[in-house]
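User: Can you predict the 3D structure for this chain?
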Amino acid sequence: MSKIAIFGGSFDPVHKAHIQIAKDVLETFNLNKLIFVVAYNPPHKDKQYADVKDRIEMLRLATKDLEHVEISLYEAEKQKIVYSYQTMDHFQKIYSLSEIFMVIGSDSLVDLPIWENVDYLTSKYKFIVVRRPGVCVDANTKYLNRCVFVDKEIADFSSTLVRYYLKNDKTKALKMLRRNVYNYIAEKELYK
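Assistant: Here is the predicted structure, written as structure tokens:
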């Protein structure tokens, strides 16, 4: 049975930690494919800073040399909130003979109980969890039995931090972004 991971997010912007997560997940769990899913309007975020078309293009630039990686516009094309259980069901229909996993950070694992239709989601799908510094996951964490963890250490930065450095310290921002993504942001004057 093939194994496929769904890695959703706003990718606002996509940064080197996102790319490292994709590589580590593919390698650690011997996956056949990892699919980035760009959210149009994620249910747990207040706003997006770059237009969805720009976020898609930055993701294309960041992943162009990665093997076994695809980008899906399933959520972006809906132009509304799409919940994780809907996205996972969509891919399960397409890849009905595959085992489908969802990639999340440990911060999302802790918040999982408030997700839409979470009991259905967790009964049907398993999660590949990337540990985030400062987030406590212990034996009392709900849905732990549905999770496998990436043990490799991931760079401790976020899109929020990247956006901050794009405004305040371009040298640090460049260390967090692939050069082609940084150039795209500069050319389009994003995150000003």
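The beta strands are 3-9, 33-38, 69-72, 99-105, 126-130, 147-150. Residues 3-154 form a domain with the Rossmann fold fold (CATH 3.40.50.620).
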